Amino acid sequence: MLDTGKILQERYQLQQRLGRTAAGHQTWLAVDLESQEQVTLKMLAFSPEMHWEELKLFEREAQVLQALNHPRIPCYRDYFSLEREAGAGLPWFGLVQDYIPGFSLQELLEKSQKFSEKQVRKIATEVLEILIYLHELSPPVLHRDIKPSNLIWGEDQQVYLVDFGAVQAQAAVTGVTFTVVGTSGYAPLEQFWGRAVAASDLYALGATLIHLLTGMTPADLPQKDSRIQFSDRVSVNPSLVSWIEKMTEIALEKRFSKAIDALAALKSGNIQGANIQIATVWKIAKPRHSRIQLSKSATELNIKIPSTLVRKPFSVAVRGIVVLLLLVPMILVFSIRVNSPLGLGLFTIMASLLVYFLGNGNKITFNRNYFKLEHQIFGSSYLQQTGEISEILGTFIYTLAEGNQIRIRSGNERGTYFYTLATNLKEVEAAWLAQEIQDWLNLR
Questions:
Q1: Enzyme catalytic residues
Q2: CB of 362 within 8 A of CB of 374?
Q3: Which one of 3.40.630.30, 3.60.40.10, 1.10.510.10, 3.20.20.360 gives the CATH number of domain 101-282?
Q4: pTM
Q5: Which fold has domain 293-442?
Q6: For residue range 394-437, what is the model confidence (pLDDT) as tens digits?
Q7: What's the pLDDT tens digit per position in 289-317?
Q8: Strand order in 76-82's β-sheet?
Q9: Tally of CB atoms within 10 A around 276
């Protein structure tokens, strides 16, 4: 258990827990007893309910931060692990960075602070300067989670970018086809398809500025054609409105592709004359032979996934087996008394085989408030799992020996949970289904 006053690694003394974090994660203000300086400690508890990709993301954050050197990104100091005994029964991993005195923009919003056009331009300029540095590294570093809670207004009146827990410096995490990260309302659609690019960070910055100007989260603002509608709620220079609209274009080819172009346009006010380069992203079409049924509306998404065998083309041998499995129980009904031990036993075995091969499948329903996962036999549900839409943290595609698997991760103060939506999918089918789910969730 981590408590105020506890000393970790015989060096870092915990002073105060900071902010609200996901289950298994804690952020602390601490004192480095060697230098007597205040530092920030991000702690991750590796519990049995947690999956390896969370630890991989945490380790990747530490690795990326070690290579960064920018005055508006808190400096990396240390990375360590605590054994189970020291961590009260759980192994903990710690990341130490410089502490930035100040308040996050989210904290200022919650205190009902109003942001002027001058302040918004200052925030945009300073964050873009940080993004220019990150995006021009080799390989480029994408933050992938820019939002008010990850921007600090320092006591020195400078803006700092923090929390690189979703950072991407490579295509994917080993063992996972792609990991969907980001915060709904701030992350663009292509990021929820697992195809984040530099322009994805620009979208998130634009959505953040809309939040600062309107006082409302992007997800709570009306949308038209998937675009955030905010211009009628602000009183700022029309050129700034046009600039933010271009930052938050849903189509990549209409958005700024580089932070340096966005900054030049912001300073000049010449939005149309900006050097816009087309960044490509494609929408995955449903595979022709997929038997997954999907229907959606503005308020609901319904998915029906048939059994594994039904999704695969039948060979002649499989067709024969299926026919036999269908005929044998019928013959047994006439040749053996079903209520006898032998008849009942044989009938149960054959029925179980039929259920296994032909009858089992999944039905998933999403609406504005909750999602429901139903395991089915011949159309009847025998196991149900439900969760809150607001608690969904991300979608994961796993590459396993028997095929691809889709899970969603949900988290609250009680813990982190994984729900397996589909198994044994081909790669393109898994990518298509994950994309459809995230498209729908991102518009909520």
A1: 145
A2: yes
A3: 1.10.510.10
A4: 0.63
A5: PH-domain like (2.30.29)
A6: 677 776 766 788 888 776 666 667 788 888 888 788 888 887 88
A7: 888 999 988 889 999 988 654 444 444 45
A8: 7-8, 12-17, 25-32, 37-45, 92-98, 76-82
A9: 20
